[in-house]
Description:
- It is a single chain.
- It is built from 52 helices and 2 strands.
- It has a two-stranded antiparallel ribbon with strand order 1-2.
- The longest helix has 31 residues, at 407-437.
Amino acid sequence: MAAAQVAGSLLCGRPREPPREPPREPTPEQDNGFWRLSARLCALRPDDSSSARTEIHLLFDQLISENYSEGSGVSPEDVSALLVQACRLVPLNQNHLVSKVSQLIHHLLNRLQVIVDEQNLDFLLAYTISAIQQCSSWTHMEILQALAALVYCNGSKCQKYLPDLLGKTGLLMKLSDLAQSDPEVRRAAVHCMANLCLSVPGQPYLEEPYQNICFQAFLTTLQSPKSSDMDDITFCMLLQNALKGIQSLLNGGKMKLTQTDKLGALLAVLKKSMFHGLPGLNIEMPTVLYPTPLPQYDGRPLVKPQQSESSASQPTSNKKKKSRVKPKKIQQEDEEEKVSSGEIEAAPVTGTGRVNMHEGNTCCSSSLGVQSLPLDGSGPAGKDRVSLSFSSSSWKRVSSSESDYSDAEGSMQSKMRSYQAKVRQGALACFLSTIKSIEKKVLYGYWSAFVPDTPELGSPQSVSLMTLTLKDPSPKTRACALQVLSAILEGSKQFLSVAEDTSDHRRAFTPFSVMIASSIRELHRCLLLALVAESSSQTLTQIIKCLANLVSNAPYNRLKLSLLTKVWNHIKPYIRHKDVNVRVSSLTLLGAIVSTHAPLPEVQLLLQQPCSSGLSNSSSTTPHLSTPDLWKKAPAGPSVEEASVSSPKGSSEPCWLIRLCISTVVLPKEDSCSGSDAGCAAGSTYEPSPMRLEAFSNLPNDKQILCITVLLGLNDSKNRLVKAATSRALGVYVLFPCLRQDVIFVADTANAILMSLQDKSLNVRAKAAWSLGNLTDTLIVNMETPDPSFQEEFSGLLLLKMLRSAIEASKDKDKVKSNAVRALGNLLHFLQPSHIEKPRFAEIIEEAIQALISTVLTEAAMKVRWNACYAMGNVFKNPALPLGTAPWTSQAYSALTSVVTSCKNFKVRIRSAAALSIPGKREQYGSVDQYAQIWNALITALQKSEDTTDFLEFKYCASLRTQICQALIHLLSLASASDLPCIRGTVELNGDMVRSYILQFLKSGAEGDDTGGPHSPQERDQMVKVAVKHISSVHALAGDTSRKAIVGFLEDTLTVYFDSSGSQVADLELKNR
Length: 1073
């Protein structure tokens, strides 16, 4: 034990301490109190006399009570040196002094936000661990608090002490065990473990065995019920610490939840903790949640009859009035709301930092208003809301004169509710980290456990994330629940695409498609219900963002009409909301609606409505508006509303939404923001959405120039949200046919995008990389036009600059990398012989191809590897590149053959096989050995085309075999005499297998394949005929019978195909030939 080795020296007063540096002279700005007390402490020497102990006690008390202001000039090194000296003065047999020095460590490190350096940490850790081992149990609480402060963000530097702390008989394992008699000590031990798991970017993570030990300890803590000797607040803090620990493991430690039982156990405790302390709700959860498309059970117990009666007897009209008007004398409610909204306490830890929702003052009516505003007249859901209304609002909205408890009791109740809300927020934050650490296809197996479904008639609604959104009294918790729901909905388009409810046909069972459609309808209903009832601007923003994610992914072409109309009518008033973030999210939602399955007739009708349509639908809950008609202040011409109302249906005048977006962007800064939003940039109220080509083309020429000028100007904005949105909009504009052939516009856009690629914000870089990919797509489209003027006029220096930026971006995060490699492939395809001949391009081309090869082989996200394979195929399309003779040729082919045989994702395999079939000349495949390697790899890939443990990949098996067969036939049509022996060997060994798959290729084609291969039967059998003709024409080497064997194999395959298809004429033609 590392700590045991220093225990003896600590008792003897000769601790193994770091070398002491002479104290530095404080600058005038530094804190005089700290330096004065520090100098006194450093002057002391170890002394066991009573007077010495008293002096040390007094010094510690003064150091603890000193007021340390921010920027006091006290450096981390000074604090660490003082703590080492303090520990040196305190022998471990002095329990009171050990307790006091532990308090000092905890106080100074937290108050001054100090992370101890490694040298001093080693000494202080040894001291605290030995103190726990040797001191009385009543000191353990303070020592553990000191230990937690020491290991905070220092987990990677504590490696040699981990056996003492987390081993089988480790201190933290024993003290955090369920058998621990002191609940406060147990909580403090779990807190230490959570801080150990917190990692810092750039430093090593906690080793995997210790990660698993901590994860299991946290999970056990969350699964265990509250013991009888533990008070409620301590229990809440215990749960918070366990949740933070798991979150740190998932975020910083990159822990992978691959085992179903492990993930299911975590999701079960998270769901239970999400509702911890929610008034009127107490759910029982199984130990493990298993993935299933249907709910396992209804986990919510029925509400007691007495409670329902109490709820029914409560005078709702008075209660409603009180919720709308907040008397000044009720200060308790104000404080309570601040606590619940997060103004007093910081947000839960996510990753290595803290998330702050910036919750503002909110009315107390939010949760009550939800229960009194049914949207669709859903009976069971309405009944469910009423049954909980009394319990969720009786303590929230009662005045001090009506309270049944004293002021002290009220303060304790408020504190309790604050801690319970933090547990719910911690569980939601941990759930968000869990979502990010698992694949979406795994997550959607638990869809029904967290996303609501329309309840059956007479049955209560199951608890879900929407339960929190509608009924939690804390706006911060509601916002957290909406963030989690948004994360679930993001990228769910493929999962939701199966939904269908356009038919009313009754079945004996509920199909999966109908269940998903029902879930989508219920999400719409609940989110719109939350929208009209919410009073917190921050939570309102999250509701609208969640709606935008839902709208972007839901298959409205397969659902009944009116869902989008309801969203449209409810959101229009919020375009003029006083809060800039609400206005931004409202415009984003409108952009999502108009982009949905275009051209959707329902959306076309909505766009033809006058802008005043729908405003009256939400009159009962009119949102807070900014200056009236502010957004109508267009720079010239009639107002937006007048224009939209007066314009005939067939007019070329753009609709009100386009005019609104333009007017929003060009409004002066002081007009576009009001109140607290005055510091926002002018463009921050709008994220430009992809305007349809027709809409842009219909704009007058001066308006088109205005849009382009505004976008290029906004690209220099200091606001990163504006910059990201501008980069994305430029990426859309550069695809417009009316703009993409304008060399000057494309060059200006390229320079703007390249500047954004250097931004510190990942979001800006990701949007810029996407736009760079689009811009390079435009280069390829222009290259295919008959007019060569674009290629000739496009700057070679700019191409060089784009290549360098794309290479750097390919080393970035996956969000940036996926589009960076796409851009690299397009740029290498676009290069002209005049570029390639220049020496300055040679090195950059080599770097670019090496970046693509590295990305193909890396263990990155599958989207990144797919794009890298696609890019490599684009490189092969450029005949000017020295493919086949360049040194990188073998590396490129080796990377693709490795992927086609072993990648677990079949779509990536398909794309790599497609890339291998692109070179059009035999020389481009390199040497005979290189050709043989590619051929054998494709045969191996064909044999392994059904080898997968993931059932979701099976649907791509046919497409993979089709693409591999196409690549093999392509290779046959280019083969040289030297290649024939290798091909013959394959025919002899695996002829039956290859023939069966080629027959499937000829019969079925490439259904669902997007690689551009032949789709008609005539095209497919023509490929084989061309291969037969080519092999027949090859001059075989003397004595080599390979040509005859291969031709015979192919002719036999065609004969079988024609016999089975009944095409006797083609068969006879083949035989006669």
